Q: What sequence folds into this?
């Protein structure tokens, strides 16, 4: 399934099936894949004041979107994706969000060729596409197992499209959701040599959010060291299979 098809499934789920209210802003949509080796996963897109202003200015609400033609809907989706790109990577007019500064620094400090450039090597994905800064509210909504199952299907589609060499889940709550879903992670998929879960033979590193108080300097250093070890071990295993 292509990213375009994944974005259409997001439209179908959130808008056509009315999992968002008419007054809600449009959900997160996803950019094209460009050969990234890493998939990083967070919880959901936050919505500080400047992002809310942008969504208002560009009429990016469910109510308006529903009444547009297919071509006009695509333009709105492209507008969102372009703005999300500036939030991740920054531009002359706008600094990147602090959240993405932390991700960029982590992968730079990883110092592993082909995996250390956030812009070139990492595809970032938010597990729940609904925009909300209040993580407590998000976690309550994600008690709905039907919703979680749908979101896990979305995540699988992204993995199939990106085809990463390694997956990082930078949120403890999302990690628990994935571990509790046997179709994604389960005890049988733990690799003792790598010391991590596998999904379709792809190493999955479960971690806390890098920003804020969730990750100490010591924890971060251990996470970098362990990630390097997993990548090196996986490289050796693949070499020995040849």
A:
């Amino acid at each position: 399934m292509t990213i375009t098809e994944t974005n259409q499934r997001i439209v179908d789920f959130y808008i056509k099936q009315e999992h968002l209210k008419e007054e809600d802003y449009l959900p997160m949509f996803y950019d094209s894949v460009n050969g990234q080796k890493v998939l990083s996963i967070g919880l959901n897109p936050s919505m500080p004041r400047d992002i809310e202003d942008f969504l208002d200015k560009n009429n990016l609400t469910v109510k308006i979107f529903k009444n547009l033609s297919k071509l006009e809907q695509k333009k709105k989706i492209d507008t969102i994706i372009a703005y999300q790109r500036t939030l991740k990577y920054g531009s002359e007019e706008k600094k990147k969000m602090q959240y993405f500064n932390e991700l960029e620094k982590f992968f730079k400090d990883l110092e592993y060729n082909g995996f250390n450039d956030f812009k070139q090597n990492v595809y970032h994905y938010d597990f729940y596409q609904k925009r909300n800064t209040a993580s407590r509210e998000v976690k309550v909504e994600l008690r709905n197992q039907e919703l979680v199952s749908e979101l896990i299907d979305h995540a699988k589609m992204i993995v199939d499209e990106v085809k990463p060499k390694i997956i990082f889940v930078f949120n403890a709550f999302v990690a628990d959701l994935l571990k509790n879903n046997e179709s994604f992670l389960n005890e049988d998929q733990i690799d003792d040599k790598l010391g991590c879960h596998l999904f379709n033979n792809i190493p999955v590193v479960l971690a806390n959010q890098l920003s804020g108080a969730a990750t100490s300097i010591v924890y971060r250093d251990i996470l970098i060291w362990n990630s390097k070890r997993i990548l090196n071990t996986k490289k050796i295993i693949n070499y020995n299979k040849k």
Strands lie at 38-42, 122-126, 166-170, 190-191, 196-199, 202-207. The first strand starts at residue 38 and ends at 42.
